[in-house]
Write a structure and sequence with these properties.
Number of strands: 29
Structural class: alpha+beta
EC number: 2.3.1.-
Protein name: Dihydrolipoamide acetyltransferase component of pyruvate dehydrogenase complex
Keywords: Acyltransferase, Lipoyl, Repeat, Transferase
Cofactor: (R)-lipoate
Distance between the termini: 68 Å
Number of domains: 3
Radius of gyration: 29 Å
GO cellular component, one term: cytoplasm
Helix content: 25-40%
Shape: globular
Number of helices: 21
């Protein structure tokens, strides 16, 4: 039984996705919901899970292919059915063994046993897994379920396959990620609606598939001998299956071979040095046999290592070809996206306990581990700072701080050097990387925004001392009551929303072609979020209907889900005005670019204390330490004049300086 995996719907206005990486290869066994590939859209990178368990028989869309929503990605078949056609099973594998590299010849020889399937496509294209294709044709091709590109949101018509998380021959479970699809709004995973074996991939990575287009075929796992038999086989047949899979992996996934030659980090899973954690975690994954899951976009395959790695795949990879996702039962399954995040945050995946299904490590687990490590590091630095104060008296021989005594540097020198930025350990330095779909989209839209509207920025300074004091008084009770921490951003957001109601020209949209200006009746507030994948702006719809607590909860919610790549495509559209909190990284002033088709964006700087001149009620002046913040409004001068911008900022400033938020904070 064959099942076609198709590009699912990835969000509103998303019509296609680009395949960035296949996580499974043809012949691999996949479970339901097990990631098959990664897909990139204009907004997010996501994994596509397998809707059915079985064997990945054919990859239809290759990496870098753009596939429309509903387009074919792969075909999943039933390994037992393939094995059931045992008359040709052994011969099919023996035939594949002597020619693992010239796959086109294998493709020409395989259509003979595949005239029966009701789906014509799996037969001629069951190439990638020459080990599975020869035996799967008898029964797997016609009885599979075709996976189509689902609807990914309102107005989304297509998606681009960025990465296959499963390969032909892999077993998949229901709701297991099959592939990742990219749209204009989000990058998301496409889960498998059925369990079985991935028999055929109809859309390659980077293919754009329309909604409803065929992505893959998933069938009964028994339909593919390429996955079920290698585990039970021994001797030449098992070796030939391994050789064939090694050839497939060599062609489709060159990066993992680089990892195969790095066994050393595996012996150090508990390394505390952030420079080694990423290597050790990837090494552990590669050593466990999950070669299809290893993702290192920054690594370039070394030519001389190819044959050696092929040998290692032959010797150690045969069981994994048969079990595919089964190998991950011994060690937590890690998707490339999670692994990339772990690299960026310096997290050793070997030390992370997964909270996902089957112990799968999720992005939330990595973020939590990184936060915990940061807290431990800060605690260690604070602990080491205490004795450093006594060091000069304990070693006053030369009277100099930071001097070298007996080959050891004194603590004060170490504390000074702690401010020196640590070298980047992601492997990006000195490399040339392919521009991701999302980064390309951001670049395109930023330039288009500047070319579309006449943008300039006006800045005011607000005294938020009263808010700072209210926040100090109420933040503990607020967190217990609302479940989120109280930052300055909700105060600025509610002041902005109130100002938008008073100044509708800033909450508008202009259409020069029609000669129309639309003044929005609601305030849909975009919040710029610095996510691991880049700048993303989720939207809080009807923000004008929320109080301070409601805005704080919504901001925390959409920001966290955006960082975890869990935001829905519909939540990334419809904004009427945007806030970007550049102060979260210490910036004081920014000139943000407008998010089209909006006509304004507010940049909020860092809240800092400084001496300012204050005037009392009688007109007397004095110098006091106050908490201040810069508010930077970039606006479209085609419709918003400088006076309009100043009035809008004046309203925001007045609301913040008044600080009348006692009722919202429960202080009255």
């Amino acid at each position: 039984m064959a099942y076609t995996v198709q590009m699912p719907a990835l969000g509103e206005s998303v019509t296609e996705g680009t395949i960035t990486r296949w996580l499974k290869q043809e012949g691999d066994h996949v479970e339901v919901d097990e990631p098959l590939l990664e897909v990139s859209t204009d907004k997010v990178d996501t994994e596509i899970p397998s809707p059915q368990a079985g064997v990945l028989q054919r990859i239809v869309a290759a990496e870098d292919d753009t596939v429309e929503i509903g387009g074919d990605l792969a075909v999943i078949g039933d390994g037992d059915d393939d094995g059931g056609s045992s008359g040709g099973s052994g011969g099919g594998q023996a035939e594949a063994a002597p020619e693992p590299e010239p796959e086109p010849e294998a493709q020409q020889s395989e259509p003979e046993p595949e005239p029966a399937p009701s789906e014509p496509e799996p037969a001629p294209a069951s190439s990638g897994g020459s080990s599975s294709g020869g035996s799967s044709g008898g029964s797997g091709g016609g009885s599979g379920t075709t996976i189509e590109m689902p609807a990914l949101g309102e107005s989304v018509t297509e998606g681009t396959i960025t990465r296959w998380l499963k390969q032909v021959g892999d077993a998949v479970e229901v709701d297991e990620p099959l592939l990742e699809v990219s749209t204009d709004k989000v990058d998301t995973e496409i889960p498998s609606p059925v369990a079985g074996t991935l028999l055929e991939i109809k859309a390659n990575e980077d293919d754009t598939v329309e909604v409803g287009g065929a992505l893959a075929v998933v069938g009964d796992g028994s339909a593919d001998g390429g996955s079920a038999q290698p585990e039970a086989q021994s001797g030449p047949d098992a070796q030939s299956s391994s050789d064939t899979q090694a050839s497939s992996d060599t062609q489709a996934e060159p990066e993992p071979r680089q990892e195969q030659g790095q066994p050393e980090p595996e012996s150090q899973p508990a390394a505390s040095d952030g420079e080694h954690t990423a290597e050790s975690s990837d090494g552990a994954v590669a050593a466990s046999g999950a070669d299809d899951y290893v993702s290192h976009e920054t690594e370039q395959p070394a030519g001389p290592s190819g044959p050696a790695n092929a040998g290692s795949l032959q010797s150690g990879g045969a069981p994994s070809n048969g079990t595919g996702g089964g190998e991950t039962a011994g060690s937590p399954y890690v998707t490339p996206l999670v692994r990339k995040l772990a690299q960026e945050r310096g997290v050793d995946l070997a030390s992370v306990s997964g909270t996902g299904v089957g112990g799968r490590i999720r992005k939330q687990d990595v973020v939590a581990a990184a936060d915990e490590a940061d807290q431990q590091q800060k605690a260690a630095q604070q602990a080491s700072a205490a004795p450093s104060a006594n060091e000069p008296t304990a070693a006053p021989s030369d009277g100099s701080q930071g001097a070298v005594h007996g080959g050891e540097v004194q603590k004060p020198a170490a504390s000074r050097s702690s401010n020196i930025p640590t070298p980047d350990d992601s492997g990006l330095r000195g490399t040339t990387q392919k521009l991701s779909r999302r980064r390309a989209t951001i670049a395109k839209r930023m330039v288009e925004s500047l070319q579309t509207s006449a943008q300039l920025t006006t800045v005011v300074e607000a005294d938020v001392t009263r808010i700072a004091r209210l926040r100090d008084r109420a933040k503990a009770d607020f967190e217990r009551r609302e479940g989120v921490k109280l930052s300055f951003l909700p105060f600025m957001a509610i002041a902005t929303v109130e100002a938008l109601k008073a100044h509708p020209v800033v909450n508008a949209m202009i259409d020069t072609e029609k000669g129309e200006v639309t003044y929005h009746g609601s305030e849909h507030l975009g919040i710029a979020v610095d996510s691991p994948a880049g700048l993303i702006v989720p939207v809080i719809h009807d923000a004008g209907d929320l109080n301070l607590g409601g805005l704080a909860r919504k901001i925390s919610d959409v920001a966290q889900r955006t960082r975890d790549n869990k935001i829905s495509p519909d939540e990334l559209s419809g904004g009427t005005f945007t806030i970007t909190n550049t102060g979260s990284r210490g910036a004081l002033i920014d000139t943000p670019i407008i998010n089209q088709p909006q006509v304004g964006i507010l940049g909020t700087g860092a809240v800092v204390k400084k001496p300012v001149v204050v005037t009392d009620g009688e007109g007397g002046e004095s110098i006091a330490i106050r908490s201040t913040v810069y508010l930077c409004l970039s606006y479209d001068h085609r419709i918003v004049d400088g006076a309009d911008a100043a009035r809008f900022l004046g309203s925001v400033k007045a609301r913040l300086e008044a600080g009348a938020f006692e009722a919202d904070l429960g202080l009255v």
